[in-house]
Each structure stands twice: as structure tokens, then as C-alpha cells.
């Protein structure tokens, strides 16, 4: 036997209990640091209940005073139709599935049951779907034509809202993440009182990119303590700052040019939600089958998914500057052509300016706005006694980062 020809499909209750609910609940889902919502009524609404003030009522001559309605915030999560499909050559699929089975000590290749085979196939597909959902909920962009384009992710929504004037979302644009602990502290200090006060409820979380996570772990390892020495050898199960979990989002697999590649995000995990629905969309199913014409095994799932955040005041965020290459083409003392090629965070950049400087770092001409073409900003500067050029990248929200070349 060198191929698996048994067809299997999940629908109705099996689709929920066997396939999707294990993905959307449990320790693995909680480790993502956000709220997971599965099969909530459509339209799916994200709620955040405001902490009540004084709810005690006085008893007067006319009896008890009436109560006020509880204040809450809510936002509808837009769900998109999603199809996940993957194909394997028959030989590769056979090898991968049977490896999952025979690696177990209690199973022999000669006495495999249909249930064990089904569980191995299902586990293989669930892993692929869970990873695609995880990356899309952060990096998704429906205007993109390549990967992770089925629904808009958190980063696209943050960038769009910052560009629309929601300045509270971005507290800082940093040029280097070397001082990761300082960034965590600054994000905490820039947080709203509402976000800080929610710490006692135990739902605050730092969501960071891998560079920040690694630098913060290095800083902890460098502490001159026996506990730090032991942790450096044995590793750490998780990182905390001020008792708040620090979670590595692991987004390095795909780095789109329009979104931030490095950031620190402090929020209440109830403020960010990922919703998946398999109940209210006709045709929702999971199928696994063998195609003899192509000699391949295919796996397909159809469902609805979407994500969103609720309150910008429950978010404090610092974003790394756009990775860029600065070029001066034959710039003389009287000027010349300059350009900036950006490879990340393009969606937050409002403009790029350049100006010539003299030997004393004083302005040696007039600052010009570079013209944008794709991800490149270019133009010509002019002046007298120019020895260097200062490029200034202007970000939504009023933040700027200057680089002298």
C-alpha cells in the first residue's frame, strides 16, 4: 500500500466537535493572547463591558431609586467566506500520515484501524488550518493578491485607524529595538488609565514580534542572578513583564511591505477577537479525498472567519521604523538626486522629505517632499555647501524619524 484512498468528510455537529472546536478552544488557543469566538450568532458582535461605578441605591421616602443601564461597548466583526485547500502527491501524503501514526509506541503499521488513520489525516489538516488562521488574523489584507488575503487582519486595521487619526494606537515609532525592556516600559507608561486599571483582572498581555521577544529574553539572561543563570540553561516557559505575559507572535514567515515588521502591543486580550463560524454558512464542510486522475490526496475546508478589535483606548502600541535603503546619486555641494526604498511599514508612512546639510549639520537648502512610486520615494535636493543629506520619514499620527546620510 503506497496511497490512502479512503474519503472522509465532516459536516454538521461532527464539523464542530471533531474538527473546529479543538482548534478554537483550549491551551493552544489561549496562548495566542486574544479572544477566540467560535460559532457565535451571525452577525458576530464583540462586547466589552464597562466596569460599573456606584451601583448602591438609596432608600428614600418614595422607595428605592431605579438603576441605570449597564454601559458597554460593542462592534460587529465582519466574517468572510474562506476556503482552505491543500493537495499532496499520493506518495508524500501516505508518508506524512503514516509517520504520524507509527511514531506512537502503541501502534504497529500492520494493524492500523480506520479510526487511527482518520485521526492522523484530521490532525495534519487541522494543523495547517490553525497556522493559516493565526497568520491571517495578524497579517491579512483582502486587497493583496498573494498570501493571507481572505480577510483583513489586526495590523491592517491598526494601520488604517492610525492613518485616520486614531493617534492613541501608536505611542512611539522606535528606530532600534535594542532596549526591549525600555520599550515594554514605555508602552506601559503610555497606556491609558483604563487599560492600566484592567491589570487587576488578569487579562492584560504584551503581543510582540520575535525580535523584541528575543532581545527581552537576552536581557533577562544577562541579569547577575542564580535564577537567571539557571533559566539561561534550562530555558523559560514564558516571559513576563510586571506580571503581564509577553507573547511572541512569530510572524517572520511572511513580511508584507505595507505592514509593520517590528512592534510591541499592550492590550486586554478580550479587546482583540478572532471569530470562526461553521453554522450559518451553507456548504460549510471539511473533506479529504483521493483524486485518481491526478494521483493526489486533497483536503478542503469551507467556513467563515474574521477578526477585529474593539476599543483603541485599550491598546498601547510602539512600532518599529520602516526598514529602508537611503540612496544619494551623485549629490554634490549644490545638490543631486536622492531616493528612499522602503521594505516595510509602508502603510503608515504619510510622506518622506529630504534636505541638504552643511558640515555643521545646519540646513544648506530647502527641504523637499520626495515623490512616491510604489515603495520608493525619490526626488532632487538643491542648496549650497552640501556635505550630507537628512531624510525624514513622516508617519501617521505625527511621528517622524530622521536619518542622516
SSE blueprint and pairings:
Blueprint: E1 8-10, H1 12-24, H2 27-30, E2 35-38, E3 44-49, E4 59-60, E5 63-64, E6 72-77, E7 80-89, H3 90-102, H4 114-139, H5 154-163, E8 170-174, H6 180-190, H7 193-197, E9 204-208, H8 210-221, H9 226-234, E10 239-241, E11 244-248, E12 263-268, E13 272-277, E14 285-291, E15 296-309, E16 315-320, E17 324-332, E18 335-342, E19 349-357, E20 368-369, E21 371-373, E22 376-382, E23 388-395, E24 400-404
Parallel strand pairs: 2-13, 8-16, 9-11
Antiparallel strand pairs: 1-14, 3-6, 4-5, 7-15, 9-12, 10-11, 12-16, 13-15, 14-15, 17-18, 18-22, 19-20, 19-23, 21-22, 23-24
Overview of the structural elements:
It is a single chain. This protein has 405 residues and is α+β, with helices and mostly antiparallel strands. The protein has 9 helices and 24 strands. The strands form 6 sheets. Strands 1, 2, 7, 13, 14 and 15 form a 6-stranded mixed sheet that branches. Strands 8-16-12-9-11-10 form a 6-stranded mixed sheet, covered by helices on one side. Strands 17-18-22-21 form a 4-stranded antiparallel sheet, with no helix packed on it. Strand 14 and strand 15 form a beta hairpin. Helix 3 crosses helix 4. It starts with 7 loop residues before the first strand and ends with a strand. The mean pLDDT is 84.
